[in-house]
Design a protein that fits this description.
Length: about 550
């Protein structure tokens, strides 16, 4: 059954839910989400949210730390907005019911890599879960928010879908909602909306090793690209230095690797090689608390030198009681894997964690398509530049989804006329596929190609090889897609391939090493490339 609403929000992580709550104050909202409502990157966030919440901290230092991590590519105006509006948004979360860890009646602020002072607001080591809980509770209290689970958005609706408007110029495109596949029935419905918010999160599943859950297949990036929106800085994929190394998964897909929070290093843990050597001091004066790109590259280098499968994180020198109190979830999950972190070193490897680039938006979350907003990880506000500072992601999501919701109020107020007549989903002639093995194999192939050739260290040759391989996969999958009735895996594969294409294309455009993009062919960071983003756009949607 088709739906018509004021605002369609795609995604129920922090960005989508926070926007829904703010927009419901003045409009009717439909939120669609791929799986169960809590399943999101947000739900797995551990460390916390960075914000200036104490008198020992200042906006200037948070801005400076963010710009330093961003390696010359942050948008300073956007960083200032995020940092200055951050404390109010944290207070909003508290008002909405999020319960953060306190110390002596005040927020317990901890430290992570790249931060010059303790400024991470957290709920023990389960910050994301607590935020999701509070936001879902609040969403449930609104009559004008309809949250629809197990519904996968396939494509955005623009002029492209309306025959008589198809030829209009790209510079004047509108977004009027999305086609969405409903769970069990696989029925594709049309959700028409005056404003659409993409809050679909990340794309970690493009890589073999990732901390991201299965939902993070980059759907929003790919939908926006197909619709002709501007996409930026896709080469900057952040690899978290410390995901739990699970030897039993060695030859398998290590998707959804368990994260060992950076807060563990913030608490005093030390990275060691197998023979006990604390190696970070050889790479950076900030040692284990250097920004993530530096730590991940150092680990990659140590593993290449030694031929070992993992390095180790050692927190055994700290009192067991304090460790368990601070990191109850990490302690218990590691215990399930047979590792007592109070007595044994934790085996860790880097894993794809976060996309710093995304759909280009302005300070109100507006994309280059009218009526299409993007917030959270799928967007590129410019606050992360070439490398995101730890715990700035949740902050960016609440600050800019709040701003987007304010702008949507104005947008709806001035909405010129009704939405044009939009055709229904057309799958006439398409067949049901009994060749799922083709899809599952191709999914593995994309992930392996991206891990091996477009990972922590890159080169021209590796990028070229990846480009060719991904192009083959694209051609094969498009052929299949055109003649097959849609199902989840084929849609996700299509999106993974599109994201892989965008990452490779952007990486090839950047002829230098900067932040998270390191290539042996251009090892220098070039002054001339300062503040230059790599922008790509599908000019023939
Ligand atoms: P998400 O929370 O990922 O939500 C995306 C939503 O979109 C989901 O509901 C998903 O199901 C839905 N969706 C996706 N595609 C579709 C589709 N096609 N149709 C319908 N729905 C769709 N950041 C920090 O700042 N601090 C931390 O401590 C921290 N820890 C982290 C730990 C882990 C293990 C991970 C993976 C990330 C962590 N991050 C952290 C990053 C941060 O959690 C994410 O960047 C942030 O939560 C993204 O929020 P979001 O709302 O943009 O997306
Ligand atoms: C972590 O807890 O290490 C993750 C923090 C982040 O991704 O910002």
């Amino acid at each position: 059954m088709d739906i018509k609403t004021d605002v369609l929000i795609i995604g129920s992580g922090i960005a989508g839910l926070f926007a829904a709550i703010k927009i419901a104050e003045f409009a009717e909202v439909v939120v669609v989400t791929k799986k169960e409502k809590t399943e999101s990157n947000t739900n797995y966030a551990q460390g916390g949210i960075a914000s200036v919440m104490s008198s020992e901290d200042s906006f200037e230092t948070h801005v400076k730390d963010t710009l330093t991590a961003g390696a010359g590519l942050c948008n300073a105006k956007m960083v200032n907005i995020m940092v200055k509006e951050g404390p109010d948004r944290i207070r909003d979360l508290i008002e909405l019911g999020a319960e953060f860890t306190l110390k002596n009646g005040k927020l317990d602020l901890v430290r992570e890599g790249g931060h010059s002072v303790p400024r991470i607001v957290h709920a023990k080591d389960l910050t994301g879960k607590e935020i999701e809980r509070a936001l879902i509770d609040k969403v449930n209290s609104f009559n004008n928010i309809r949250l629809i689970e197990n519904s996968l958005a396939i494509d955005l609706i623009t002029e492209h879908n309306v025959l008589k408007l198809k030829e209009g110029p790209l510079s004047n495109r509108n977004c009027w909602g999305a086609y969405v596949m409903r769970g069990e029935s696989k029925e594709v419905i049309k959700i028409a909306a005056k404003a659409t918010v993409l809050a679909t999160g990340g794309l970690g599943q493009v890589y073999w090793h990732t901390t991201n859950p299965a939902i993070a297949t980059g759907d929003g990036f790919a939908m926006a690209y197909r619709a002709g929106a501007r996409i930026g800085n896709m080469e900057f994929i952040q690899f978290h230095p410390t995901s739990l190394y699970n030897p039993n998964k060695k030859n398998n897909n290590n998707s959804n690797a368990f994260l060992i929070s950076e807060a563990v290093r913030g608490f005093g843990a030390i990275l060691r090689t197998k023979d006990g050597n604390p190696f970070m001091e050889r790479y950076d004066e900030r040692k284990d608390l250097a920004p993530r790109d530096i730590v991940a590259r150092a680990i990659d280098n140590e593993l290449k030198k030694s031929g070992e499968d993992c390095v180790y994180l050692d927190i055994t020198h700290l009192p067991a009681k304090n460790i368990i109190d601070k990191f109850p979830n990490i302690y218990s999950i590691c215990k399930n894997y047979g590792i007592d972190i109070t007595k044994e070193w934790i085996p860790v490897v880097p894993a794809a964690h976060y996309a710093c680039g995304g759909i280009v938006v302005d300070e109100f979350g507006r994309t280059s398509l009218k009526g299409l907003y993007a917030c959270g990880e799928v967007s590129m506000t410019g606050v992360h530049g070439a490398n995101r500072l730890a715990s700035n992601s949740l902050l960016e999501a609440i600050v800019f989804s709040f701003r987007a919701s304010k702008n949507i109020r104005e947008f709806l107020r001035n909405y010129p006329s009704d939405i044009p007549e939009i055709p229904g989903w057309d799958d006439s002639g398409a067949l049901t596929s009994d060749e799922k093995v083709l899809i599952t194999h191709s999914i593995k192939e994309v992930k392996q190609i991206m891990w091996d050739y477009v990972g922590i260290v890159r080169s021209n040759q590796r990028l070229l090889r990846a480009e060719k391989r991904v192009h083959n996969l694209y051609t094969e999958n498009e052929e299949l897609y055109k003649k097959t009735k849609v199902f989840e895996e084929i849609l996700e594969l299509r999106n993974l391939i599109t994201c892989a294409h965008m990452i490779i294309k952007s990486a090839k455009m950047r002829k230098e090493s900067r932040g998270l993009h390191y290539t042996i062919d251009f090892p220098e960071t070039l002054e001339a490339h300062l503040a230059s983003d790599t922008i790509i756009q599908n000019l023939h949607p």
